[in-house]
Design brief:
The chain is globular, with a radius of gyration of 20 Å. It is built from 14 helices and no strands. The protein is 67% helix and 0% strand. The longest helix has 20 residues. It is mainly alpha-helical and 258 residues long. The protein starts with a helix and ends with a helix.
Length: 258
Amino acid sequence: PRIDSVLKDFKISNKPLYNKFTGEDEKCVQKSNQTRGSVTEVSDSAAASKPNRRVSRERGSPKKVTIPKSRASHMDGEATASLISAEEAMNRLDTLGLANWADTKVLLASSKWQEVKRGLEIVQETLVAKPEIIDNHSEAVIVTLGQTTKGFTHKNFNIMNAAFDTLTALADLCVEQSKCFPLQTLKAFVPFVSAKFGDRKMATRLHAMLLSVSQCVTPTQVVSRVCHAATKDLKSPVQFEDVLTFLGTVADEFDVSI
């Protein structure tokens, strides 16, 4: 009932996006074409001017993502695998011999948000400078981010935005380096960051991060968790509207049906 009410309000407040998301525009076009008895073809020039869509690395194509049942089962198994502990994650990162890592750990554990933010920025900078870290330590990085941000529920938007940027950098590196994003970590952050939908101070970076992760694990893996969290935990119409905006972006950028 809440969603039906939000969808109704959303249709009134943003009809173009509502139509795009629900397929109403397509239905209207089909009905119009049936009435006219002809279909208008899209010119080559118009098609050429269409912006590039994101590519899901799982399929290597921006077309609709359809995962074989065998692969889907394998992915589900990976997604439910146990995570390493925060202590184990830190121990693994300690072995990398990163420059000034001891100082960075102090920043991450600080009670001052400015220092925590700087610590997260250093982690992001380190990932970009040493992309080989993602070969075996992506899970450790994400678990450490969760530990630093109180399970991705921190109320300080500066800290959360820094964490989102770090996750985006990690996901983008996975795509660029053709490395696997640790599926088992999705349950550790997607449901919790979904509570940040509707917060105008975090929306841009939140959307960007989830889109980047979607490129690694397919949109379905991310969207299913976002929708589950939305129907279970979200209450504000502003939050639901932001979720719908995100889903519309996913459908547009990946050219997938949700």
